[in-house]
Design a protein that fits this description.
Two copies of one chain form a homodimer.
Chain A (H helix, E strand, L loop, with lengths): L6 H12 L3 H14 L6 E5 L5 H8 L4 E6 L2 H10 L5 E5 L12 E6 L9 H11 E12 L1 H4 L5 E2 L6 E3 L6 E7 L1 E8 L2 H10 L2 E7 L5 H6 L12 E8 L1
Amino acid sequence: MNLYDDDRFFSSYIALRNEANYNDLMETPAMLSLLGAVKGKRIIDLGCGFGSTACVLADMGASYVLGIDISEKMIKKAKAEHQRGSVEYRVMDMVDVSDIEERFDIAYSSLAFHYIEDLGRLLQGIRGILAEGGMLIFSQEHPISTADYEGGFSPDGSSYTFSSYQKEGKRVSRWFVDGVTTYHRTFGTIANTLIQNGYSIDAVLEPKPSDTAMKILPRLIREYEKPSFLIIKSYKK
Amino acid sequence: MNLYDDDRFFSSYIALRNEANYNDLMETPAMLSLLGAVKGKRIIDLGCGFGSTACVLADMGASYVLGIDISEKMIKKAKAEHQRGSVEYRVMDMVDVSDIEERFDIAYSSLAFHYIEDLGRLLQGIRGILAEGGMLIFSQEHPISTADYEGGFSPDGSSYTFSSYQKEGKRVSRWFVDGVTTYHRTFGTIANTLIQNGYSIDAVLEPKPSDTAMKILPRLIREYEKPSFLIIKSYKK
């Protein structure tokens, strides 16, 4: 069973997303700022969760949005709460995207790639369903964050301690539940895996919180010491 | 007066470079591994120091190497100790490269860009002296390192503490002498400044020490916790 179908994880995660959270206050606005206009575009949302962004993309004018997620619970919630005429949802592991017959102008993925063990295989699969010159835009946990789950902020949030940056691979940590598995890759590995799989790197964004976001969620000020997220915008070459 | 012409700094730096050091054991091999063949190429070495790499490039078959450095002392030492028929040295601030009339196939710069305040202006200048499709390859202190000179390794070297990653700009620290000025830029800013000034990003390397290098200089093992250097290979688009 995948993490997001664990009952305890799922309810904790939904509760988190119902409060002021990093996704809605910082990550999604940063992604949308890099994405640009989507009017008339066909978009796949890889790891779409409960579909909030898929609907935003549809409302921004995308002609078709296919949201896929490995979690049955997430897709069930998406279908129940985030329906649009131009949005479709499927339960699917994103490493199997090459099974999809449709082709897309944009592949969009929010905070999911760090769950994937084989980034090269994933990027090849995505490349196969992108139209010529199609865009891949994704966010993931920042490599400084994925390096070491033993580390973290000082109690007052003024500094961050980490280790093991060059020791890539599996990390098992606790996030609501024990045994949450992610994969640490250095910035260099992420960039080179894109390049070697036929993508150009067109923008890199380590998002900062807006003043408004920090008023709503004051601990976002810590993002000035150490970024939580890395966003890359690429095109199929 | 620039840092490298300060008598105390200069003699301390030369003493460091005469011992087993990070440059010779890790940074230069990593740069040369990305650089590839240089036979018949015209190369500018930006911030060439005392010319050791300029000579390596000449010995690898470069048809012409122009080494420039802001430090008169460094260029004097380069001319005295690192002469080759195909190598020329000039005292020059790299931000003024657009004054150079020659054109180059490769611009090479080792551990100097973090001294430069205006990276965009520098990159534009370099672009102007690169031939069509020319390569820019540079190393600099890693953004995790330049973020915060108050931070550093734990006493046993097993973790690294930093802050202020998103607070870009001037840093003044002590390295042999007080008042050493460098400029912190995030990974995103470095990448985007390249892209916005007409370069593609073709490889990113955060070098790791070899086993041999760690035998010679055991504290290089700390590089596995936190990288010291960032290397980017780019082409003029």
